[in-house]
Amino acid sequence: MEREIIVKKRDAVATRAAILAAAHQRFLRESYDSVGLRDIAGDARVDVALISRYFGGKEGLFRAVVRHDDKPDIFREPKSVDELPAFLAQLVVEDADEDLEKRMEMFVIMLRSASSPKAGAIIRDLVHLDVLGPLSELIGGDQGEFRATMLLSILMGVGVLRTIMMVDGFAPTDDDMAECAERFRCLFAAALTC
After folding, report:
1. What's this model's pTM, rounded to 2 decimal places?
2. Residue 40 sits in which domain range?
């Protein structure tokens, strides 16, 4: 009697996505140093060797998790420093709950793992590459990076209030949205000039 041998073809895209999803959940609940690759592999139901194959190891995987974003170049959208305050204000008031939740999960992952020397270096690198770098370039001048940091502080503070502390009185109705956007525009403009 012949046995039929079934060869399970690997779906690289699905495997990579399963590993990323499992790692995201692990890093959301635990710090970088507390998470093991075997834990992630078990959650993703893959061989641990595949993590190294797809991501090069734990550092590469962590980088992919915190970098995983639908809009990686969002802070490159404004084309002039004059557009920046209104652009940032619109980010605040028009932020969809789903997008805000994803960004705040990334913030929690970064915060939870920032004390790790390896994870901290990755986080600092990505924040400079994706946020502070583009904002500093746009702002320019001697104080460009300092002003970019001020803007990021305001954005992160609003995000923490809205998602972690569940305080969201910034734009309760559509009628108030324009006023709210204008107040945030003024706040961001002040951070650029002080």
Report:
1. 0.76
2. 12-67
Burial call 121-138: b when 16+ CB within 10 Å, e when fewer? ebbeebeeebbbbbbbeb
* Cα distance between residue 152 and residue 158, in whole Å: 10
Please choose, from the candidates 74, 73, 78, 81, the residue with its C-alpha nearest in 3D space to the C-alpha of residue 189.
Answer: 81
How many angstroms separate the Cα of 77 from the Cα of each of 30, 70, 184?
Answer: 33, 14, 18
1 is a domain residue:
no
pLDDT tens digits, 79-104 = 999 999 999 888 877 765 666 677 77
**Which CATH number do you get for residue 45?**
1.10.10.60
> Is 4 within a domain?
no
Residue 118: the pLDDT is 95
State the Cα–Cα distance between residues 49 and 59, nearest whole angstrom.
14
Task: Give the three-class secondary structure for 76.
Answer: helix
